[in-house]
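Sequence, please.
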């Protein structure tokens, strides 16, 4: 039984504190959402970890459009900018599923050879960056893989210094940021060279998820360390400019398209 999760609503312009606390029962960490424009209606795609499927939900009437079985333990979801394709990480099967957004049907399964858990698509829609999930410390960390959306095949692997929890590509597409929970760091990967070019340190352990404001000026990072918080990082200096206290275990984070609000689950 999953414990209840809460969603915090943060005001981005103030960057001071959580301004609203919404109770949401049974929000699972292993469920991710992505939005694509399928046909004439915006559709959210939700990865269902337990059932190993992806459900398409009409965001206009909140009704289920369809559910597509994929693989046991599906995790991260990301869509191409044009909303035509959905990429789903399957860490147990070590694959990534390619789904046609309009029909919610499977187009291809890509063998990635690593336990990919989270992924993100570059703003130009050309590449998908897949970050590995944890190994529990018993095995060396898996590498990150880069998938070409033109061929839907792996075109590059990037060694990771340690386990990762999330990945996000900057709005300008120049960098991919990856969180490392054990050392409390974030790796910055240059997407032109696909190499790690810098590291951002956060006091303590536990950076989880991250998201960028649409204008590319700030990153919001959930930190499960002590104290639990949301770290706000300026991309101009790659340094923490403020921390927003959260009462317990912050995990997921998302920013509204206008950049006005940040939603955080704990």
């Amino acid at each position: 039984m999953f414990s209840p999760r809460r969603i915090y609503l943060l005001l981005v312009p103030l960057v001071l504190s959580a301004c609203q606390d919404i109770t949401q029962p049974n929000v699972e960490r292993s469920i991710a959402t992505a939005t694509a424009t399928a046909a004439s209606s915006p559709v959210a795609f939700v990865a269902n970890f337990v059932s190993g499927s992806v459900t398409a939900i009409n965001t206009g009437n909140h009704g289920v459009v369809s559910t597509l079985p994929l693989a046991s333990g599906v995790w991260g979801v990301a869509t191409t900018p044009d909303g035509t394709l959905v990429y789903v990480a399957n860490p147990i099967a070590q694959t990534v599923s390619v789904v046609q957004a309009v029909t919610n049907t499977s187009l291809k399964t890509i063998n990635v050879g690593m336990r990919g858990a989270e992924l993100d698509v570059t703003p130009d829609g050309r590449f998908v960056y897949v970050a590995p999930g944890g190994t529990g410390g018993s095995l060396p960390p898996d590498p990150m893989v880069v998938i070409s959306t033109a061929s839907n095949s792996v075109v590059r692997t990037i060694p990771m210094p340690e386990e990762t929890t999330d990945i996000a590509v900057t709005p300008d597409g120049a960098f991919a940021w990856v969180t490392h929970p054990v050392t409390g760091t974030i790796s910055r990967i240059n997407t032109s060279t696909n190499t790690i070019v810098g590291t951002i340190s956060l006091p303590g352990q536990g950076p989880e998820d991250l998201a960028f404001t649409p204008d590319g000026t700030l990153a919001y990072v959930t930190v499960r360390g002590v104290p639990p918080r949301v770290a706000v990082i300026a991309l101009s200096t790659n340094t923490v400019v403020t921390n927003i206290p959260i009462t317990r275990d912050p995990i997921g984070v998302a920013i509204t398209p206008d950049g006005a609000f940040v939603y955080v689950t704990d």
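Residues 1-33 have pLDDT under 50 and may be disordered.
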